């Protein structure tokens, strides 16, 4: 008989209770210091703007500041990897768009698994995109753009936020449907890419409506189409790419909030409650409405809905991306 067994069992149960207690205490006091919300792109872009918009009310609900940290690189995969490897204590959370799903098909091998290395807190908002050109680019409409690109393809430069970014995905689908390849110029986010488009340093860019509507209305950029199957209420005179011949063009950028795998459930619940409250905030809603951004229904603002959506989107985009033929 092993006489140490009861002692081992006692120790294990005391340690177990200890772990449980410390977990419970952590969750109960959470958060007792600022929470970092990681953004996978540069400051001043669409993902960054949504993050900063929800960070303030989320911080109010949590009773601690939610600090936005930009960790750009490799189309968002640098930040995804950073969060996947972070301590699962609720002090580092993550907002990413549908690049969380598309990166899988755009990279041969990712250093993290989007379906295994995260906890899922909730979906946030859906954002349409627009195809833009610099103000002095010769074509004035989509038909002219198509002809211009076909005769000047080596010359035409298309900005994006790197392989894995939706601007890259949108550009990839655009080029594939047009049957041409242009020169791609990657940035750390579409914030800096839009700055260069406004400055005339690059020719075209697919970007979310988050920042772009005022520039379109002021004629500081040219707009050639919207990426959704329906026209946008904020830009009723801008045709969809689908209606201009790029049949089936349908890109709307969804977003989710994540935490590293193993973050305790009570902590996730607190973050989820803060997220829901932020999305119900009238100022947040008004700001997003003005950019034609739809906050997702409450039924999608939870972990299981985000996880199911991510899974479906990985399956949806894999074949489309492989068919559209590979990243720049
Ligand atoms: N709009 C971006 C993208 O193309 C990223 C960003 O938010 O800057 O994925």
TrEMBL record:
<protein>
    <submittedName>
        <fullName>Tripartite tricarboxylate transporter substrate-binding protein</fullName>
    </submittedName>
</protein>
<dbReference type="InterPro" id="IPR042100">
    <property type="entry name" value="Bug_dom1"/>
</dbReference>
<dbReference type="InterPro" id="IPR005064">
    <property type="entry name" value="BUG"/>
</dbReference>
<comment type="similarity">
    <text>Belongs to the UPF0065 (bug) family.</text>
</comment>
<keyword id="KW-0732">Signal</keyword>
<dbReference type="Pfam" id="PF03401">
    <property type="entry name" value="TctC"/>
</dbReference>
<feature type="signal peptide">
    <location>
        <begin position="1"/>
        <end position="27"/>
    </location>
</feature>
């Amino acid at each position: 008989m092993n006489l140490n067994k009861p002692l081992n069992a006692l120790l294990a149960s005391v340690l177990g209770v200890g772990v449980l207690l410390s977990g419970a205490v952590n969750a109960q006091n959470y958060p007792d210091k600022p929470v970092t919300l990681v953004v996978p792109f540069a400051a001043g872009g669409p993902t960054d703007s949504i993050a900063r918009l929800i960070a303030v009310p989320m911080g109010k609900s949590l009773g601690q500041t939610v600090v936005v940290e930009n960790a750009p690189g490799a189309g968002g995969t640098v930040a995804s990897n950073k969060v996947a490897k972070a301590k699962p204590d609720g002090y580092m959370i993550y907002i990413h768009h549908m690049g969380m799903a598309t990166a899988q098909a755009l990279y041969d091998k990712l250093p993290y698994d989007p379906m295994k290395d995260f906890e899922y807190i909730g979906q946030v908002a859906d954002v349409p995109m627009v195809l833009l050109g610099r103000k002095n680019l010769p074509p004035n409409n989509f038909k002219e753009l198509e002809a211009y690109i076909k005769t000047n393809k080596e010359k035409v430069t298309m900005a994006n936020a790197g392989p894995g970014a939706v601007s890259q995905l949108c550009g990839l689908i655009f080029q594939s449907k047009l049957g041409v390849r242009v020169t791609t110029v990657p940035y750390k986010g579409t914030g800096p890419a839009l700055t260069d488009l406004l400055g005339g340093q690059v020719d075209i860019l697919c970007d979310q409506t988050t920042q772009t509507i005022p520039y379109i209305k002021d004629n500081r950029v040219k707009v050639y189409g919207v990426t959704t199957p329906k026209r946008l209420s904020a830009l009723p005179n801008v045709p969809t790419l689908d209606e201009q011949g790029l049949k089936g063009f349908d890109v709307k950028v969804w977003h989710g909030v994540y935490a590293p795998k193993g973050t305790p459930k009570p902590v996730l619940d607190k973050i989820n409650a803060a997220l829901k409250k932020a999305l119900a905030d009238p100022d947040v809603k008004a700001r997003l409405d003005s950019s034609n951004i739809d906050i997702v229904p409450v039924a999608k603002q939870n972990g299981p809905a985000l996880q199911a959506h991510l899974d479906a989107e990985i399956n949806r985009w894999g074949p489309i991306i492989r068919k559209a033929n590979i990243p720049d």
